[in-house]
Amino acid sequence: MTNPILVEITRGPKVESRHHGAFVVADADGKVVRAAGAVDVPIFPRSAVKAMQALLLVETGAADKFGLGNAELAFAQASHSGEPGHVDMAEKLLALAGLNEQNLECGSHWPTRHSATIELARAGKEPSQLHNNCSGKHAGFLCTCVKCGIAPKGYIRHDHEFQAMVRGVMENVTGHPHTVDCFGSDGCGIPTYPAPLTALACGFARMATGNGLARERASAATRILNAGMDKPWFVAGTNRCCTDLMEIGAGRLYAKGGAEGVYCGAVPELGLGIALKIDDGSERGAESAMCAVLGSIFANDESLSAKLGSKAIRVISNRKGSAVGETRPAEILQLSG
Question: Is pLDDT of 102 > 70?
Fold first, then answer.
């Protein structure tokens, strides 16, 4: 099955490039509300499922033991930009568990926020693991290991006790098997397991409603999603799409992107989950598509839908600052709703 065109890139009057992909909106029972493309083909969700991976931080009591509030819980599900506030938060979470940067196993890279990279370079410093966009998730993993008395060394390995726990959570929430004979390694080193977009959307609907989850897991899911919606800057950073979407939604929507053109989210008030994948892995395509899908979901709220819809269109400028084209949702997304 060839996936439909979800996003177009124009230059002048002509469509210059196209992004194919698939998306699905579903409820907690797996009922598909809207879909297009091969939504039952397993894909690697990458960082789009960090909210699910953070559930154990709350379920095990680690969040309460270390006194974590919404900012800390939002950061535990982050793909952050490496801004100073993010680095400080990573250091804080580790310190609460009696650990430090050396306990992380995510590797280091320069901040993805250009100004943060310049600031670090001007100070004559090199990036540490605290700057890794996944350091919040890893710090949350380590806090959970400490609370549960699990030796943290090697916590990123698929055969580590902690990763087996995470795998079990993912299976339960998505309803899809996560097996050790079929997995990849994410950019930060942890295992990533393929799952269909339908399972991912259903999983986020379950997190948003609690339907199909045990009471403790449902409570943890509410806490995790609410933290992300309350403190979205800690989920991503300045001028990041996830942050902007949740700020626009003001507590009514959750959105989280992942590498290679993946996006997932939830609309708690409607009990819906969302999952999409752009075939070529384009971030610009995934962001435009996610904004359009959310805009259609909120079609009955003209103001919110308009804000989300306008964010789905991004002007392309030349080096002189003149508008020369745009990134825009294709017809299939413009008509969905």
Answer: yes
